[in-house]
Amino acid sequence: MPGVYYTTTEFLDDAKSAAKDRGMPGIRTLALPADKYYVARANKEELQPVADAFFDKMVDALTRPLTAEEAKPSQAQQLHENANIKVTGKNFQDASEKVNELFLDNHWADGLPIIPPTPELVKAMEAGTTRSPKDVLGQVAPKSGTATIEKIAINSVMAGAKPEYFPVILAAMEGFLDKHYDLTHVMASTGSFTPVVLVDGPIAKELNFNSGIGMLGHGWRANSTVGRAIQLSLLNLGQTWPQVNFMGLTGRLEAYTFYTFAEDTAKSPWEPYNVSQGFQAGDNTVTVSSSGNPQVFGGGAVAPWTAQGVIDQIVTQIRNRGVAWPHAQKHILVLHPDCAVELANHGYTRRSLQEYLYEQTRVPYEKLAKQVSFGEGSEEEFIRASIADGRIRSDRAQIFLDNLKPGGRVPVVQSPDDFHIVVAGGSPGYDLLFTYPGTNWAHQTVKITGATLTKAGQ
Amino acid sequence: MRIMKRNRKWFLAAALLAGGLCTAAAASAQVTLEVMNPRGEIPPPKTLGISPRGGSLDGKKIVLIDNGKYGASNFLNVLADMLKQKYPTATIVMYPKPAAETITDLPKWYPTVKQQGDLFVFGVGD
Hints:
The complex is a heterodimer.
Chain A: E1 3-8, H1 12-21, E2 29-32, H2 34-40, H3 44-63, H4 68-71, E3 85-89, H5 92-105, H6 119-126, E4 136-140, E5 145-148, H7 149-159, H8 166-177, H9 183-188, E6 194-200, H10 202-206, H11 221-238, E7 259-262, H12 273-276, E8 285-291, E9 295-297, H13 307-321, E10 330-335, H14 337-345, H15 350-360, E11 363-364, H16 379-388, H17 394-403, E12 409-410, E13 419-423, E14 431-436, E15 443-447
Parallel strand pairs in A: 1-2, 6-7, 10-13
Antiparallel strand pairs in A: 4-5, 6-8, 8-15, 9-14, 10-14, 11-12
Helix pairs in contact in A: 6-7, 7-11, 8-11
Chain B: H1 2-28, E1 31-35, E2 61-66, H2 72-86, E3 91-94, H3 106-114, E4 119-125
Parallel strand pairs in B: 2-3, 2-4
């Protein structure tokens, strides 16, 4: 079917890149001037000059006969990315600097200095797992680069990770590559979503992950380099770059290390988080998820707080945000230990707290938005469409249908399971809420296996 | 004087030797790092041509696809008005992309576009 695709100038490279990835590099793609379109799009009158300038180009693209290359394009050739590269410098520092410049020029690095991934260092990294270097974990979105153990090892060396961290990095990558995880959205969205990487089990202590004060900050090599190894692996295997095909408008707020931390199971009054996900106590796992910018609750060291007060603030925050896309929305609530213990002392279990949050965050039908914030259509239309196409599970659909009427209270998530409650942070501490309002599922917990250099995770 | 001349020759020879040694030392101090490529190999997709086209839009059924982003329908409605005015015999079909449609659902949805008309205009891509 003949057609024309249009985007804005800022997204033209992204559109052309995606067309090439999908095997149609010749698709006719036009661009509206971004500086004129976005400010005018609210009404037709302001859009008229933009349309006037666009119209003839559109007609031309729809009617101009094809060139020979458009009709029968040459086939894309396999680009081989396996040859080693030799870089010579006046001394080690000079050679190392040249490697850094080369990698950044090629869009293979993140802007911070990298450790040159020599074959010797990569082999040492691979020794951290029992898995074969040639094993394939999957294809990484958006360009479907092949994720072998060896390629992830190369990126892990660049990040400065220790070989004993490698099984944690591999388990995280398995989670991102799970068929149920919508990695494309996280890798390319304008929303600048940031992955969350949560380590659970005895391996967290053995590798010295920080789960206390400053858990999302600097100073702990495990937190910093495991997150960075995952970031570099996603960047290089998915082959993304800002302003080309990674279009996060602000960039991720934790762009270099993601939100990587461990649960403090010793101070938690409840069973480890991974047990709530179906694993055994003592299992070592990584949970990978996605989040918008986290929000902070509680008083920390400077203001009084109560655990119930914190929960009430969180409920209000979530409920005020509206329903939007309940089929995939989820929340990770990271409670600092004192808050979790106080909640437990008041009788809350993890499950009863999940159920409390599910019930209290329901939005009165009358308050559903008539127009969603991210596009066109009302929240009720989105929910009914999600029920019709099965994205809201059949066993939960009736709850939504029963409440899509005056007096109803509409859930913001599919079930209480979509509130993930984790204990980490200092004493005193704050409580964090990570929310992902994405269009598809993006949350997986994976068991860490195959470790050769640690007691845990073997 | 003879001694001085001899010393001068020796000094010259020593300077040349030292210079040579420095060059050799600089050459031998060069470091070559062999590094591995961090990129994943991409299996190339089969490349397809685009659909043939030609002639006028007169009498054609043109499908305007709104991708659901805020303001997309406003722009397409302006285009629809212009198309109707300039090509009165053309038929304009507004066919919004389903809300929250994602790449995993698109294979089911694309074939339905072809049933709507002869040509499509699809946007705005963010």
